[in-house]
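## Example pair
The file below holds two records. Each record gives the amino-acid sequence first, followed by its structure token line.
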Amino acid sequence: MSKIRFFALGGLGENGKNMYVVEVDQAYFILDAGIKYPSAELYGVDEIIPDYRVLIRVKDKIRGIFLTHAHEDHIAALPHLLKDLNVPVYATNFTMQIVMDMLKDEGFILDNLTLNTISQNSIIKFGNVRVTFFNTTHSIPESVGIAVHTIDGVIVYTSDFTFDQSSDIKYQTDFRKINELSEKNVLALLTESLGSTLELNGGVSTNLNHRLNSIYANADGRIIVTLFSSDLRKIQRIIDISLAHKKKIAIIGRRAQRIVDIAIHSGYLSIPEESLINLRYIDEKNKNDANNIVALVTGNRHEPFFMLQRMCKKADRLIHISESDTVILMTPPVPGTEKMAARTLDVLFRSDAQVKVIDKRLLTSAHATAEEIKMMMNLLKPQYIIPTIGEYRHQYGVKRLAMEIGYKPEQVFLLDNGDVLTFDEKDVYVAKADINVGEILIDGTAVGDVNDFVMKDRELLAEDGALLLVAHVSPKTKQILGEVNIVTKGFVYVQESEELLNKVKETFLEVSKKHLEGKYINWNDYKRDVRNEVNRFIYQETRRSPITIPVIISTEPNA
């Protein structure tokens, strides 16, 4: 019997940051390595990655990082990981192209890395463990599920999937492969959870086509469509409908959105060359307002909304939205962008354009809904189920679904990041919070230099501002020279708060008396006491806590 352990460094109890580890007899297999985007209160943070440092001490035992598909919440932490863990990476051709582009961007020399392109027929052997793959359907081509075969059974990780039937081979689920796995002993199923609370809504694809076709038929002028650049299936659908209506297609943000560019270059998005146009900058002669243009506004998270606002305000260089335009919004707000999405709608309606918001139910996310998750469980018949990829309520939804089809509560494990599930000599047990997990906040380029203290300071700056107190003190004569200056940023408006700031100066002078009496000035204590007293006084007067920075400069009086 092997000793098998499973734990997550990210992706459980949250949306994003997916990174799971299967350990078989001390050989580590990492499944995905994604980022999460910050919510609004994380000021200045660009992205959040799992704290992978716990893996550094076992890096010689890591057999590889296996990637399921090219979405950022599954691959974008790779550049950070590979700096510390130069281990082999396995991914399908399209995913690998996106990864290589990302790594080049980060300054990696690809020859120094081990990047292996796999297909669903690859079988990779590591001692008595084999890793195999099976094609799944998702909103991006060449998505795969991963199976880790051990002598005690198979651990299957579905990643994001749906059973939506597609005619395009690049998006088809391989049911034959899934059936082959079910004939083996499936020990555990790591299924995605995000859609577990959604009912299956049949015929959505047809309804969406119908809705889009009727909008196209009734549009007199240009059509502007917002799309997430990672949702290549929807981009292809809009392209197909646009071609059917004999439109010319302009993709805006294509250069910025490398994923779209790579997809076009490598034939994952098929657009006839003659139907693709490049818009020129707007000037007196050129308005880019021909009736047959469909402009695809692509981007991540908030970018489509931001670009639409610019177009409405006539600040964009390619498109100015006017009343003859039809704007189709196919980008439901993602967590953290709700405010911006609401503001964008407001700006759009002011522009008098025809605004068509596609109902969220028609834009079914590319995640397995309740019936599809049950179908995956029934196909694979695992002994145990571990809901992954989703917040706790989604994981709980999977547990409910499993019990509907006959699983017992003790066969479904609702884990948190850092919990370790061990399969040992026919016994299965969970060690809560066994592994120290956390988040690394990425701010600009430096990694891990933003900790809780920095975030606390940013929160205070955003809420209560800062106050700088500048004074010149002579250590010789023990006197304050010249004026005490106070500079505030985001705290109070200086002209209207003279009285308060004068009292702050008085507080400073009071504290200074005590420190200037002795033989020597202890500068550190002096600054600390000034900060504490000023903070206490300001809080009493205003109930606010700005960041107070005393700048006390040692100066000699002019002789």
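Second record, same layout:
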Amino acid sequence: MDCCISHFQHKRRQWFAGCALVCLVSPVAAEQLSEAEMAQVTANWECKWCPYEDTAVSAGEVEAGAGYVSNDSYKQGDYTGLNEEGAYFVGDLEYGYQGGKGAYSDVEAYDLGLDSRRIMANGGKQGQIDAELKYSELPKLNLDTARTPYAVGANQTLPASWVAAANTGGMTELENSLHYADISTQRKTLDLAADYHQTKSLSYGFSFQRATKEGYRTMGLSIGGFAGAAILAVPVDYVTDQGQARISFAKPRWQASFSYEFSNFKNETDSVRWQNAFSTPASAPEGQASLEPDNTMQQFTLTGAYRFGESTQASALLSMGRLEQNDGFLPYSINGTPPALPRSSLDGKVNTFTGNLTVNTRLTENFDFEARYKQNEQDNDTPRASYTYIVADNPAASGAPRSNIPYSFRQRELSVEGRYQLQRPHKFTVGYAYENFDRTYQEVDATKENNFWGTYRNRVSERWDWFLRLEMDDRNGDAYTAIIEPGFPDEDPLLRKYNMADRDRKQAKFAVSYLPQPALQLSFFTDYANDDYSNSEVGLTESEQTNYTLDLQYRISEALSFNIDYTITTMDSSQAGVTWTAGNDDTVNVAHLGVLYQVFRNKLKLGFDYAYADSEGDISVSTGEPYPTLTSTRHTFEIYGDYNLNERSILHVSYRHEEYDEDNWAVDGVTPNTIDNVLTMGEVSPDYNIGVFAVSFRYAF
């Protein structure tokens, strides 16, 4: 914040400092005066800085200007809204008001000229009522190079001149029919919240959020199984409402809160229908697929805490919820005369339960202890039924009937942790957790997990300290047994799903911070994690991740400072098939340099930022040549300056240049007809070189 906002914050600090002084002095005066004398003295008191006085203070800052983007780029505009060449409006606002009797309000608005704008407002009366309003937009720009012959929407048709064929190579009108499809979404979110404090012990609150998401996403759909598939741009039209109402009680030794929460998701487009671009199967000229179904959630939560004297306290949480999904089923197929459905809808019901209990106690001045119990349950009450299995909307291709499986689970965890302060610089922590995870209708009925950890922190001196954490975890399960259900394909008996397989995990973290002089700080952080699935013959067998981060901050003089940080992350994994093995090796490098120079004190400030990021991913397989390396590289340069025109006005100028390049063998060179039985969108990896210039005027009031 600049001059006026800083002044506003300083005034608030003065208010609270003044009130604290009154609170400290008043008890002393009260001990020396009688009630009558005290009343006579206080009748003429005037609190100059108390927040409930009638004096009003306000401050704010407004920024307005214009920016220019040198060329179009979807990747550059992802989440930022800076995707189109041309000018855009720069508009930000910050305003704060402190009125009489504790009234206050604050308003903030950022990026008003972009599709990533945010607006926030709150206000009320201190200690009585607080209200908040938020609005935000967020663009997610995925693809602007995707092409399709379909008319996008809920009902996707092909051109009248379309020539169907048994494979994409025979679709003679494909190139003439292609047009670009905008694969992006725009999320808009509105939040409302309020709290009312009836007394010091009793308060009420509510919150509500409505989020809408509109646009298009890609979805692979097939007709007739492996005969032919197409990647389509399907509509996204979601509305999600979430809310909470709560009541809270607070006493010196205990606190409690009760709340009701709900969520309601509605998909305005419940299905997509499309013409078959292939000539086979002749019995399936069209296809239909369901999109995300409407669903609801309700939950009741009770929380509380109680203090047993000065050294021990306990807190607890109990929560019960209900998830429901009852959208009507689509027919098995829109081709031919499909059989009747056993039910009109799923009538899905899942009951949830969460319980936590935590006890903290300080046994001695240097030793404290914590014990915690957690339990999570999902009880799936969805009724089962036997459904005819029709392959990809083709009644001529059907399999044995299948039943839906109502998965349920119960997760219980008990953990203890002790913290010991050995003299001043040494602090030890040791802990243990035991988890039992029970499942139904899954390959492993129960898994048991033991987790041990320990940390040590040493504040060697005022100039440097270091930290070390070591952790070991082992998970073992019951016998792995493939699920046998009518109509379900057989599972390889050697396969082990990684979330239920036996696993040994080792983790380590180390950090050190060094301050050789007040103006220079060095920090280093590293962590290591290894997961070993030694009992898995088929599936994920091992994964390993390392991370190293170095940070340097140096204030050369009062006018010049800079900071440098560099992070390298490696991620490796191995998996095994029945007759093959494969490995994934990923490396990510991120570096940043920032320089800030005060050319003329309180007049001209210049800054420079450079950010670099690159990633490489290699996939090797034992049965053939390794895949080409996946790469991405980003360079971002930014230079900016602030010139103080006067005490309240600042001229801000910035220029940012960004280069990005990506190589992805999965999409590069893959045209819509490259794959015989899949009609793709032929997108290409993003590659851009772009500049963004902006000039704006800030005024503090």
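Notes on the second record: The longest helix spans residues 3-32. The radius of gyration is 32 Å.
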